[in-house]
Amino acid sequence: MISGEVHVSDFVCIMPVIYASNLQYDRIMLWDNMKEIISNINAPWIILGDFNCCRHPFENSSQLWDFNSFIFYVGLLDLAPTGLKFTWFNQRPNDPIHLKLDRMLINDKWLESFPLLR
Q: Cross-referenced SUPFAM superfamilies, in alphabetical order (predicted)?
């Protein structure tokens, strides 16, 4: 995870960028570390990146609980995507797998700053 502050005029937000591990154990450690960091932030923030896991059954994943639990615990919202439904595929025409691994998660303060982003 890389994190920083973005300053535009009087607006300041926190913007971590994630490239999560393929290993469930490593992702759980990342979610736990992020819980600690996020609990001390009282500003708008958006988390971007490749989370290497899905949120919903239609996104084709069997490990939904850990990621959804993290999102619920810290009060994140999944910013509605535009464009393609899936962000990764295995490029196998005979046995295709499509997944949504990349996303943008926001907090309520982000929505207060940008109410039209739903």
A: DNase I-like
What pTM value is reported for the model?
Answer: 0.78
Q: Which amino acid belongs to residue 95? A: D
Q: Count CB-CB contacts under 10 A for residue 47.
A: 24
Provide the pLDDT for residue 106.
92
Q: Do residues 31 and 37 lie in contact, with contact meaning Cβ atoms separated by under 8 Å?
A: no
List pLDDT tens digits, range 51-102. Answer: 888 776 665 555 667 888 888 999 998 887 777 777 777 788 888 777 777 8
Residue 42 to residues 3, 14, 18: CA-CA distances in angstroms? 15, 10, 20
Q: Which of 21, 86, 91 is nearest to 59 (CA)?
A: 86
pLDDT score for 58: 63
For the record, the structure tokens of 118 come out as 């739903």
What are the sequence ranges of the domains in the chain? 5-113
